[in-house]
Amino acid sequence: LPSGSYSVLFELSGFERQTRQVTLAPTQVLPLDAKLGLAPVNESVEIVGSTNLLLQTAQVASNFQQDPINVLPTTRDINASVLMAPSVHATGPSGAYSIAGSMSFENLFLINGVTVSENLRGQPYDLYIEDAIQETTVATAGVSAEYGRFGGGVVNVVTKSGGNQLSGSFRDTLDNDNWRALTLFTGDSKLDKTLPAYEYTIGGPVMKDHLWFFAAGRNQSNEERRTLAVTNAGSDFSSQLRRYEAKGTYSPKGGQRIEGAYTRSTDAQTNATFNPATSMDARSLYNPTRALDLTTVSYSGVLSQKLFLEARFSMRNETLQDIGATATDLVNGTLLIDQSRSARRYWAPTFCGVCDPEERDNQDVFLKGSYFLSRNGVGSHNLVFGYDGFNDHRWANNHQSGSDYRILGTSAIVTGESLTPVFLGNGTTTIQWNPIFVSSTGADFRVHSGFINDSWRVSPRVTANLGLRFDKNNGKNSAEQAVANDSAWSPRLGVIWDPTGRTEWSGTRSVAR
């Protein structure tokens, strides 16, 4: 079942009916018990308070519904939920997350079960609209073997889908660079301009009980006054961020579900720079564009009362354009570096913007079967097994400047906002050449994985998680040379104990490789 709120009815002839209102979180197996007494003469309605479903599973996780996140003073994005979860610390570079003691690049970030981790540093892409988020789950231990390619935690963001009731929302958020405090840096100034950020969601039925649609969007403009290093020259930075999501769900009959989703994000910037703290003049600025899109097609079906099937194909593409120098000739495309001022940069931007764009992509094929078995005396087993084929692809010719030359100068003379380089022949000036003789063919890192995992409910107080995953890696660098060819078995074992049997407390122990 998709994550969400459900009403579960227990009914048997001669016994009283019972109804449970439950919330199913992403990645969770939810046990649900009911005791049916003899039917009374008069029918009665029993109201049962809900408990924390995450205490009933061997997986240690926190689930955050988006409704309370929206009213808290947070950014409302994935960061708002992740920072609230136990075992999460923003101690990595630039505030990246360490989960359960991991390095910040070792976590797995998912949107609707699809990997959206960025190729170089493993950080999450914002391929969602904040108002379209339904909930976020942060798993830190005891994770099922169906999830791989991580050494810390698993973060899964679930976005909304359409239903039988037409509904939607609209939000306008205002921002102004002048509302921030001045920094302590000399020459810092602010831009007094109020800019809106529009968000909308809409979803509903095309054919009730069979076909639904959902769409969401975000249109945001940012402008801020920036101050360049050393010269204190001012520049007005702007960003035009556009995000769109479209999702269609089709259920031909009960127990069968087909879903297609497409998300696109574009960010067009003006007067950007590789690092404002090291750029000294306006010639170091450029106008880059980043385009991201995510396409997913999935199927889930009930094959029998005990056997279920899931299949999913996803493709994520990122294109980085115009990041760097706007010329390739020796005069306008050569980067100058002032070694006397901690390698401050000027004259031309870092990298090459008019050379080839950079591509950072991935593809994933995921097949999963679920089998449920319950026997007196041996408890219940929720067995999952399947295949996960993942390919991480990057294509880039990493030019270090427009001309492939850098001059590490002795110093630079600053006259107002103008810079005059100082080149001396005493060994303090170096001409550096970083040519690319052979163009990239693209780097690929493929992982073929098989998994099996048993969530075994031994008794109402004891649940175990038994899993095994096999990963086969095959990696080639940008020159089509094999750089990775290895395989490994990854066992998972977890046990949870409920001392009272009332889901009030739980103790968990897990180990995984």
Description:
The chain is elongated. The chain has 513 residues and is mainly β. Helices cover 2% and strands 51% of the residues. The protein has 2 helices and 28 strands. The strands form 6 sheets. Strands 10-11-12-13-14-15-16-19-20-25-26-27-28 form a 13-stranded antiparallel sheet, with no helix packed on it. Strands 3-8-9-6-7 form a 5-stranded mixed sheet. It has a 4-stranded mixed sheet with strand order 18-17-21-24, with no helix packed on it.
Would you tell me the overall average pLDDT? 90
**Global shape:** elongated
Total helical elements: 2
Beta strand count: 28
Low-confidence regions: none
Helix content: under 10%
Order of helices and strands: EEEHHEEEEEEEEEEEEEEEEEEEEEEEEE
CA-to-CA gap between the ends? 29 Å
User: Could you tell me the radius of gyration in angstroms?
Assistant: 27 Å
**Percent of residues in beta strands?**
over 45%
Strand order of the largest sheet: 10-11-12-13-14-15-16-19-20-25-26-27-28
- Quick one: biggest sheet? 13 strands, antiparallel
